[in-house]
Amino acid sequence: MLKHILLASAASALLCGAASAADLPRRAAPPVFVPVPVFTWTGFYLGVNAGYAFSENDTIRTTGINTPGGAQLQNNVNNGLRQASVRNATEGFSAGGQIGYNYQFTPGSGLVIGVEADAQYMDLQRTTTQVIFNPVFNPNQLTNTYRTELSFLGTVRGRIGYAFDRFLVYGTGGFAYGDVTQRITFTTGAPVTYAGARSNIETGYVYGGGIEYALPTDSFLNFFKSSAVTIKAEYLRYDLGNRNLLVGSVGGPGVGYNARISTEGSIARAGINYKFGTY
Q: Which of 120, 142, 150, 218 has the fewest CB within 10 Å, making it most exposed?
């Protein structure tokens, strides 16, 4: 009888313990930690740019060619009939596109190197006309016309900078080339007596710097809604060199004139890039 009572008590105790355990709250699974990706500038990108361009060192310098025993055309320059120096400054807008690749050594903040190629239309053109009448040296009215134009500019540049997470500060420099047109005509009375023209792809160098920022995903400019859209502000100075242009005789006495013309200037522009890969 006692044995049955003890067994019944033990069974009751086990049933009560199980019921109490069922009433306890269940232990939740630990949360899964997902690390936030660290932004990196590494990757290919392409984009567009637009800005303001202006020429520098834009003085055209002219000298006359003297012929031994013949025409002494430098005298016309000395007497102001053909100007020794003429300013032909140009300014306008530029617009184009770029493609490049960056490599960042350490994600987040760190050194960034890269290469970029761009091409843009340049609205740099100007014609300067002078009308000169000085009967002391020439009884005719003289007209001198100077035209310079840079319609296209391309560059291939290296870039090196330092990234502060989504901010990048960089310098850049390399090779430049452009479509350059130069034309000069001198008239004596009505007819053109001296003329010269050239239209070539000229080469030189370019350097500058800028800042670039990777847009957050909630920015209204980030139309891809990814971390791979960047905006930049940039300054470039280009120099395609100095060239001599022969303004040769087309009916006037002597050989003609030499004009020294430089093609150099600056671009201040803004751009937007899309970097392939979100991080």
A: 218
